[in-house]
Amino acid sequence: MADITVTEHLLLHQKRTPQATGQFTGLLYDLILSGKSIARRINQAGLLDILGGTGEVNVQGENVQKLDSIANRIMLYRMERCGALCAMSSEEEADLVRVRPEFPRGDYILIFDPLDGSSNIDVNINVGTIFSIFRRPEGNTGEVSLNEVLQPGVKQVGAGYILYGPATMLVLSTGQGVHGFTLDPGVGEFLLSHPNMRIPQQGHIYSVNGGNWKNWDETTRKAVSWFRTCETPDGKAYSARYVGALVADFHRTLIYGGIYMYPPDIVKPHGKLRLMCEANPLAFLAEQAGGKASDGHGRILERVPDALHTRTPLFIGSTKDVEAVENIYAHPVV
Question: CATH code for 205-329?
């Protein structure tokens, strides 16, 4: 089979994807170009003295890594000029970023985490860019309001991530399934390598930061313990795997099945992960691949954010594994 680039794939599926207009395809082109630029800098990080922190703290209260800042600048610069966006929200920016009047504006809104897992860069562990695409409500013109951006994840028209690791990989959905593309450095193109990705209905891997055990309530401890002691239908025990970079842990879950969990705790009672730039796009991918994503009580994609940086618990992966957690939370330990 001939190599199919991501652009060719989008064009081939455009008739089945209502939002795949020229503007939308152009948006994805510039998003992919941003990812290539970030990948190049990550690959040269040890040689260019861009490892480590900047000494600053971002809006999330987290230490900013040098590559966080670089990736954020690349995304903002490239995407503001793409002509398809009216506004953006970045994990690294406190406020909504509106496209300035000197640049052409489009109908789309981009939400992104420029470099998820960046604290792992110094030890050469996978990191990634996560993105979510919404369409501006029809008929709205003028300056974009915050309310136009605070849409539930079910209204996403596209989502995905670019994983930077041994290979640079784009995983993308525009509502017609999930497809993976691997960057061929020889030709500088993302080529279709994982068509129609599907999450197994039940896995045998659970992923959670067990170091938070003392901060969990008894119901959460019961949910995590369930995976420590249960077996899959073929008699396999569950294995624990935790990278500590959401995009890397989710990528493994997407391919092998199982569940990734970031429950609430006494330190972060509303959860740690950002609903709009982390949970929503990955939940969109999970559902498009036949899996499920929940906050423990209901569907992630139906949650309506009340702020750009709203946080949420997240249980995501194989349908049966996520449902097992929901069943436990439906009968809390008192």
Answer: 3.40.190.80
